[in-house]
Amino acid sequence: MEDVLDEVVSSDDLKKFEQVYNDQLYKGEVTHKAQFEYAWCLVRSKYSADIRKGIILLEGLFQSDNAEGKRDYLYYLAIGNARIKEYSKALHYVRAFLQIEPGNQQVQHLETLIKKRMEKEGLIGIAMAGGAVLAIGGLVGLGLALAKGRSS
Amino acid sequence: MSAGPYNYSYIFKYIIIGDMGVGKSCLLHQFTEKKFMADCPHTIGVEFGTRIIDVSGQKIKLQIWDTAGQERFRAVTRSYYRGAAGALMVYDTTRRSTYNHLSSWLTDTRNLTNPSTVIFLIGNKCDLEAQRDVTYEEAKQFADENGLMFVEASARTGENVEEAFLETAKKIYQSIQDGRLDLNAAESGVQHKPAQPGRNTQLNDQQANKDSCAC
């Protein structure tokens, strides 16, 4: 539970808000509130299938709702996409938000978090490549040692 | 923040709650950045902040969840109360309605946290004396009657902000020392990070490194 990109919804909460949403869906009238609350839980799930579902629900809300909720949907669209490592999409939503509210610290903070993730995963890539070089180096070394052993 | 890896022995989880516009995010910002955030927009859902503090020579990492005050977030933000070791309950000294709602915030907190959770009442915006709408005495009485710690503070000037966060941590730490807070309980809101050699320590160092980055 380090930050907003790691924190995971409890399964009880997810079930609770899923129930409300499904009940309304069954009756044929889903309120924006129920859809948003369910989507907010979904994008905090540890399963990417849930997160993707949450993103679809938020996209739907963004299309249909008035101005008041739009900033909420953009924010959670950014979080959802970042959590499934769709970083460029996540940054797209962050930038769309910051065009409307340039000074928003919460969203600037999220942007920093996303960029740090990207950087960290880029570095991991380099570290893995470095590891491979070391492993190959080791094999060559071993080969040389074996050859040397044989010749002596 | 100074450079270099941090080591901490405990993690305390905090939540900040209260009506919209009372200055919850500004208090957090003042505490973590030592700056006043003017024109603070409404928080979306929850925001998160951390700071490492020192209590009785122990390094403690505070993980602070700052909840949105707007009603439409209420249902989901309730799930952040679970497992909080400290709850900062904020009202605005210049708006009586925010004070009148405290009992409902307190009920929520009591229902959703555990008996050892430290609840600290903060009357924010005490720098705006001319606009005062709630007296210190009545708020103090409310706090005493309900067994809450209490200060009036100002996120703008920084007055008592540090104190509120630190006093809460001291009280939690005291509960651990007295054995009143069970560290093994899943929802105590406290994690012990013993500084032992091996994998765990390494993990902590990595986390601590991450936190020491300027952000």
TrEMBL record, chain A:
Q: For this UniProt entry, which segments traverse the membrane? A: 123-147
Please indicate if the UniProt record lists Mitochondrion as a keyword: yes
Its taxonomic placement starts with:
Eukaryota, Metazoa, Ecdysozoa, Arthropoda, Hexapoda
Record protein name field = Mitochondrial fission 1 protein
Can you supply one Gene Ontology CC term for this chain's record?
A: mitochondrial outer membrane
Superkingdom field = Eukaryota
* Topology relative to the membrane: Single-pass membrane protein
Gene Ontology BP term (one): mitochondrial fragmentation involved in apoptotic process
Q: Which UniProt keywords apply?
A: Apoptosis, Membrane, Mitochondrion, Mitochondrion outer membrane, Peroxisome, Transmembrane, Transmembrane helix
What's the entry's take on its domains? The C-terminus is required for mitochondrial localization, while the N-terminus is necessary for mitochondrial fission.
SUPFAM superfamilies for the chain: TPR-like (SSF48452)
Q: What does this protein do?
A: Involved in the fragmentation of the mitochondrial network and its perinuclear clustering.
Q: Which InterPro entries match?
A: Fis1 (IPR016543), Fis1_cytosol (IPR033745), Fis1_TPR_C (IPR028061), Fis1_TPR_N (IPR028058), TPR-like_helical_dom_sf (IPR011990)
Q: Per the similarity annotation, which family is this? A: Belongs to the FIS1 family.
Quote the subcellular location field of this record: Mitochondrion outer membrane; Peroxisome membrane
Automatic annotation (TrEMBL), chain B:
* Cofactor needs: Mg(2+)
Q: Which GO terms describe its molecular function?
A: G protein activity; GTP binding
- Give the record's keywords alphabetically: Acetylation, Cytoplasmic vesicle, Endosome, Golgi apparatus, GTP-binding, Hydrolase, Lipoprotein, Membrane, Methylation, Nucleotide-binding, Prenylation, Protein transport, Transport
Which CDD domains does the record associate with it?
Answer: Rab14
InterPro entries in the record:
P-loop_NTPase (IPR027417), Rab14 (IPR030702), Rab_GTPases_membrane_traffic (IPR050209), Small_GTP-bd (IPR005225), Small_GTPase (IPR001806)
Q: What broad class describes the main subcellular location of this protein?
A: cytoplasm
Bias (Polar residues) ranges: 198-215
**Spans annotated as Disordered:** 187-215
Report the EC number(s), separated by commas if there are several: 3.6.5.2
Keyword check for GTP-binding, yes or no: yes
Which Pfam families does the entry link to?
Ras (PF00071)
- How is it placed in the membrane, per its record? Lipid-anchor
The protein's annotated catalytic reaction(s) are: GTP + H2O = GDP + phosphate + H(+)
Biological process terms in GO annotation:
defense response to bacterium; endocytic recycling; Golgi to endosome transport; phagosome maturation; protein transport
Top-rank taxon, per record: Eukaryota
Matching Gene3D superfamilies: P-loop containing nucleotide triphosphate hydrolases (3.40.50.300)
Q: Name one GO cellular component term.
A: recycling endosome
* Annotated PANTHER family: DRAB11-RELATED (PTHR47979)
Which family does the entry's similarity section mention? Answer: Belongs to the small GTPase superfamily. Rab family.
Tell me the protein's name.
Ras-related protein Rab-14
